[in-house]
Protein 1
Amino acid sequence: MIKVVSEKENVRIDKYLASILDYSREYIGKLIDAKLVLVNGREIKASFKVSLNDEIVIHDEKLKVEEDILPVKMDLDIVYEDEYLMVINKPSGLVVHPGNGNYNNTLVNGLMYYTKNLSNLGGEARPGIVHRIDKDTSGLLLVAKTNQVHELLADDFKNKRIKREYIALLDGVFPNGSATIDAPIGRDKLHREKMAVIEEGKHAVTHMKVLKRYDKYTLVSCILETGRTHQIRVHMAYIGYPIHNDPVYSKREATSFGQFLHSYKMNFIHPITKKEMEFTCPLPKYFREFLDCLEG
């Protein structure tokens, strides 16, 4: 369930919700048709226009959309592959798994076209997916080919045996060389589509180190001690240095590229061979070119 308080006036509700949630307008229309969207406690139609401070409740968990998840040919950037697992370099803008009305243009669709050897512990919509990164976050992602490996990797994530390092560009010049942000994260009470630092949230720790300072920006590396939803994005905004171009947690207007956040390095013990595995992948082209402009 999602609760939203309208900040707009005289806008169609399907258009308004599509602009603030990670849902397509078509999917929101299905929710409205199923009478799962209430405004101030009342059922509405898609043509309903919101007023300022309307309380909107979306019961998205009750809608079962019957969609066939089909293989889609896709240029996958495979960093590593063996018979047990894959390491993928996910581009910014690609959703990891189907949902919210998007059933054809996700990493899962590409994986299903590439191979039939994927674990199914995550359910029909998430074959091979052990963990995820946000749509507009780029970089390294682990994929399990067998259920045994999926279970072992999931346990490694849970017990913090898989180390991940991210590179991010922050708005503002961070004064210190490093910092540890230890602040609990939970669902934002006013904007349910967002996460926030709240007292009753889950334990969340991010270790941050400055790599380079620019005139109005700071390039940093971030190491996750925990893995909460939007953790780095929330923590950076919380300390007053949001990730550049973040469409959700920065107050500045963002381009279509999304947040400048890249999963740069991953280190883990292979669950079957027991060999230590370490992978890195370069920043995406748009990210690199932006840094080149700052250098210039």
Note: The CA atoms of residues 181 and 235 lie 7 Å apart.
Protein 2
Amino acid sequence: MSETPYHAFDEKDKPNSDLIRDCVHCGFCLSACPTYLETGNELDSPRGRIYLMHSAVNGEIPLEGSLVKHLDMCLGCLACEPACPSGVQYGSLIEAGRSQIERRYERSGFDKFYRSTIFSLFPYPKRMKLMLPLFYVYQKLGLRSLIQSTGVISRFSQKLANMEAMLPEVDSPTFPAELPEVISAKGKQRYRVALLTGCVQSVFFSKTNEATVRVLAENGCEVIVPQNQSCCGALSVHSGRLSEGREFAIQTIKTFEKLDVDAFVINSAGCGSTIKDYGEILKDDPQYAERAEALSEKTKDIMEFLSEIGLKGELQNLDIKVTYQDACHIGHAQRIKEQPREVLNEIPGLELIEMPESDLCCGSAGIYNLVQPEMSQGLLDRKMGNVKQNKVDYLVAGNPGCLLQIQKGIKNNGLNIKTAHPVELLDWSYRGTID
């Protein structure tokens, strides 16, 4: 009599067996996978995790131990997908596998509280804005320096210490000003576009949104910025909270689908890759599947869009040295590699210096640096070793999470390097001044 199989996965958002079978275990993914490069453990590689999911689907292992540990350890950077000769859709598999863990695995009381806090705050810009005065006072009164010097938070929880370390400098206790709902094109209008302002982006990187709007207007675009936008669902989807992610996606579709625009422009890597994947995320929803696909088809990363339409206007000399970090969800998920470099190279006086392993994950990966601080720090140390290879003035990346992570690394290493979104450099060149 055979043993009763384990029931690690239920039928809701179960990893697809056909997609699992696409993996031929060739090993091409190993050298592309950041966690495998760090640990050398087969189970910390894409094919190792696929093997674990295969075993779970077949009832051979339980939803605990190795399965949870190694699926949690995945960055979701998708570096394995371009490296895979069989075209394995690893992103869909890891998101489905994580959805099983998030719904059915019993985490510790602290982990549940900690993750609940993250997802009760970061996808909600209005809630984060309410925290700004507290962050400002905490930093300006020297409380941050005092607490960091004592190490009291890390003695209690390394995860909380890492969250505190990721807090960006807050320059003002007041909320960032809302962008106008309509920004007119400069000169003759060439296109009409809509802009996603983002969650973390709109609160801590509002200057990036302002620069994006100015650059689009300079290039003949009328820009529509719908008010009261919701989270696009990226953080939730990438963390396995698929039901929550779908709710955010539906709200985003309702907000933007009614706009008569040529493109839906995104300046955050994770948001862009998720919205481009709405068709897959909502494929089983009869009411929204086609509407999701339609919005996905119009979605463009800002640097991708500018490369396609060609730059207009007069760019002025910046005289700076720059290196470019390929944010994972731009370089790997959206396969946008050359366009940002091509656009940056059009700026007079800008010297673009390639960084070794520029497309290797920095360890940010959505909320990864908050829930896997040790692996995240190891990857950040590797990234900073590569940053030090060349003397540059700026490191640019198209994702707020990457910029926060790398800012932390720059500070800890005492480097005299500033960070920016690549669209900000274009904005400086158009205005003839560096902010």
Note: The longest strand covers residues 320-325.
Protein 3
Amino acid sequence: MTELISPTPPVADARLPWDEAMADPIGAIAAARTQHGDTFVIEGARSPFLFLFSAVGVQSFYAVAESDASKGVADWQMLRRKLPPELFRDRRTFPHDLFARDDVVQYLDVVRSAITIACDELGDSGTLEVFDFTRRLGHRVGLGTWAGPCGTSTEFNELIDALDELDGAAAFVDPGAMAAVAASDYAAERAALATAEEIIGRAVDVRDADAHEHTDHFQRIVNTWSDAEPDARREGIARDVILVHLGSMSNLFSALGWLLVDVTTRPELAAAIRGGDHALAERCALESTRIAQRSIMLRAVLQPIEVDDGTQTWTVEPGVMLATLLPLTNLATEDLRAYDPERWNRRRIRDGRGGGDERELVTAFGHGAHTCPAQPFSLSVMTAVLEAMIDRYDLEPQFADASPRAAQIGGVARAAAPCPLMYARRSA
């Protein structure tokens, strides 16, 4: 399929993890880059992947118009490996619809309530597993925001179990398992979808029976289906909620987990944040997310385009995937591999602290039109949780090391092993 790219680029003798099980796909791509340079192709089962790693190449990757090379289409093509296709049909609400600047203020009360409930569940002392804790808290924040009153604690637990089964990020986190998903024709995923639809559908019924006027995000989703027939309306609202939740929360819990790991293993940062340094808390959130990034950034070419990598201009036809890989650019130098929140000035890398002058090479949430729309929301949640946990508890790591899963490619890293954290409530 390299005939879709002219002139013919170097072709790496490598595979991609959703085509062939691999222990370390990021290492395999790094080896291909060492052999072939900053531009090369890996032949995928469905399309060739043109990898770009030079500064100019990555700039070109971000600069191509969405109508010519689509991030949205590329993401959908990846997510459909895990999620039933019917979940994507006839959607009326998408994550970017709920993350305008003014929306973040409305989320904060939900976040505070979720933190209070989570701390009540913890009690005064004990040991928590960081990523289990942040996953459950992330579900509570998201569902409290755009799923309305989901009923009893039993219903909440059933719903998060179903959403964990539906987690589209598994296409990146555990790409080797996607063949089994396809072979089953999404059996487990469709069962989970039915459970989630029923529970959220009951929340729709509760909202319909409530005579009070609501203006929350759940009501915004409900309102978009006001013209639909009853059964289609109930299903449509539920599937919009599910898709918004999966699109918004699947990586937030992991980024939040790494933030707790990174700060609690650096007592000087924890002390400064406890002392009221909110700006430092946000810088830590950005730095933890940057280092934990395992995202393979993809764009599906829809129209013939030209891509300049600084050395060669490539003519690329529809059917090709443009790609770059954040762990290879975010961690390219010894300085970038070090955890240092001071490399951030507000939400931008300080000049000279990003591995070069080309800002696109290093990122936490993407660049330009492809910046994650949930960035303000995510940073607000992460800093609020970090500050609350540090203020309320003495936190002592019970793990010697925390490292990412080697088999993952895409999204924010999941931990390779549990990260227990001992906590004890601080006196007032």
Note: The two ends are 65 Å apart (CA to CA).
